[in-house]
Amino acid sequence: EPEPEPEPEPEPVPPPPAEAIAEPEPVAAVVTEAPADIQPAPEPDHQPAVAPPAKSVTEARDTALKTASAATAETRPPEQPRLSSRRRYVVWGLPLGLAGFLAALVWLQFTALAQMPVLRPAFEWLCPHIGCSLPPPRALNRVTAHDLTVAPAPDRPGRVEVRLLLVNGAEFEQAFPKLRLRFTNAAGERIIDHTFLPPDYLAPEDRLFQALPSRLPVQVLLDVPDPGPAAVNYALELH
What we know:
Elements: H1 57-75, H2 85-108, H3 110-114, H4 120-130, E1 143-152, E2 159-168, E3 179-184, E4 190-196, H5 198-201, E5 218-225, E6 233-238
Antiparallel strand pairs: 1-2, 2-5, 3-4, 3-6
């Protein structure tokens, strides 16, 4: 087989001709001259400051006092309007009068108020501070009378003795109650109606108790005039 002919080599490309570099044109300097009719600004005249005349000592003191008074007046708070005597009496009199009324009410109703469960803790705290004696709590519905008997007094003619036992069924001691004894006839009319306080019906040995003990019977003796044969009914109330 015939051998292939070699490919011809490419001819070298001549480089492009170098361009001539243009030299910069010279720039003419511009000189601006000041017009001949412009005059320089005149220099200001500096005159020495004249010091004010010196004040005397009295004038300086008066000026200082006026300045201090003005500063005090600016910082002083505005004065509050004073209350008249009538308004002052109303402002202070009403609270004091109300406090006095409440104190008198508490004093008069002290025993009743001290028995209220809501107020009793307050009285228990207050009494040690003011020196009052707090009465024992009361639950009158837990006190009962037992073994009541009515008989003529053996050594006192015209007198009748009423004996009974008081029993406190509460879990705490409580004040001795008042006892009201009534004798009535068949028509319900009262013949004897008398109220006894604890010193009136307690025996000497039982007066040592400051309160009715819990679940411990206490002997009671009531001495009354003989109501006569017309008294067919009697009743005992605890208060």
